[in-house]
Amino acid sequence: MSEKKVWSEEEIEDIKNRIMENLEQVIDPELGIDIVNLGLVYEVNVFNGGYCEVKITLTTMGCPLADVITEDILNAMKFVPEITETDVKLVWYPAWDTSRMSRYARIALGIR
């Protein structure tokens, strides 16, 4: 039986930063912009032992691409060696709007 590694706060922050970098590779197929710059990633929680919970939303409630985006997130997490299990949770509150987008995403989509 292997012991769970206990990470320091600094190590957890480093892992979270690398997770966010990898999530920038997950592109919303409709908009062509990554989910981080679109502001769709609401929260990333990392737990000792390698479990990660990613809370995301979508631009619209009926988005038909939820499964595609979730699968892309799970694939991106494979590049973070400390993470052994990922749970993607879809949340609707607070509701997403364009104010959550980065400057990069606004410029790319022509939104002021």
From TrEMBL:
Signal sequence annotation: none
Pfam families tied to this protein: FeS_assembly_P
Domain MIP18 family-like: 17-89
Superkingdom per UniProt: Bacteria
InterPro entries, per the entry: Fe-S_Maturation_MIP18, FSCA_dom_sf, MIP18-like
Protein name stated in the entry: Metal-sulfur cluster biosynthetic enzyme
